[in-house]
Design a protein that fits this description.
The protein has no helices and 3 strands. The protein has 65 residues and is mainly beta. The chain has one domain. The protein is extended. The structure holds zinc ion.
């Protein structure tokens, strides 16, 4: 029997580690974000980008309500 499709993912909070930008390999002590969209009712689309090379790291949603 295989449990390959049911492997649990452990998420460990490591605030003591500094992520590295996948584009410029610099440490990310902070990440810039920019919101796009009106967002009064629906969630805003948030763009996260590196403060060193300005390349996009990812997208997210933030609800300001
Ligand atoms: Zn970078």
């Amino acid at each position: 029997m295989s449990k390959a499709n049911a492997v649990p993912l452990n998420i460990i909070n490591r605030n003591d580690l500094t992520p590295i930008c996948c584009h410029c390999d610099k440490g990310l002590t902070e990440v810039y974000s920019k919101t796009k969209g009106v967002g009064f009712i629906e969630g805003k689309n948030v763009l996260y980008f590196c403060p060193h090379c300005m390349k996009v790291l990812g997208f997210g949603q933030s609800r300001m309500i």
